[in-house]
Write a structure and sequence with these properties.
The protein is of the alpha+beta class and 136 residues long. It is built from six helices and four strands; from the N terminus they run H-H-E-E-H-E-E-H-H-H. It has a two-stranded antiparallel ribbon with strand order 1-2.
Length: 136
């Protein structure tokens, strides 16, 4: 997940893409690791899915960042990368994430901009929001 955040949201080159393992002691991966160890990020597994078209297995996960951790880790979030556009509001400031509301979930899943697994994952996150948003 750390590699994906670094690559997709921060625009980093693919970590370990040339056959070398990713270096988790190097930035920004080290910052993600420290944030998780400090409790600023909590991760939940929502299930395992199989994409019907590609037959690729997918682990549906959700990460919950506290506000200061999110602001620090994603201060330099990109608006696009080699795979597409980062979905965000930009209403509050350029790196603002979409609000986690029923309206946002319904709008995103109806838009057709999400892969089926992503749409399912976000719906499961909404369904289990009381658990995943609970502190402690």
């Amino acid at each position: 997940m750390m590699r994906e955040y670094s690559e997709e949201f921060l625009g980093s080159a693919e970590h370990g893409g040339e056959g070398k393992p990713a270096d988790y002691s190097a930035e920004p991966l080290a910052s993600f690791d420290r944030a998780y160890a400090a409790g600023g990020v909590r991760v939940f597994c929502l299930g395992v899915a199989l994409d019907a078209l590609t037959l690729w297995g997918e682990i549906l996960t959700v990460a919950v960042f506290d506000g200061p951790t999110y602001d620090r880790l994603f201060a330099n979030m990109v608006s696009a990368n080699a795979e597409g556009t980062v979905v965000k509001t930009g209403r509050v400031r350029p790196t603002s994430a979409l609000p986690f509301t029923r309206h946002t979930i319904e709008e995103l899943t109806a838009s057709g901009r999400l892969a089926p697994a992503a749409a399912g994952c976000i719906q499961l996150a909404w369904e289990h929001r009381r658990t995943i948003l609970r502190r402690g």
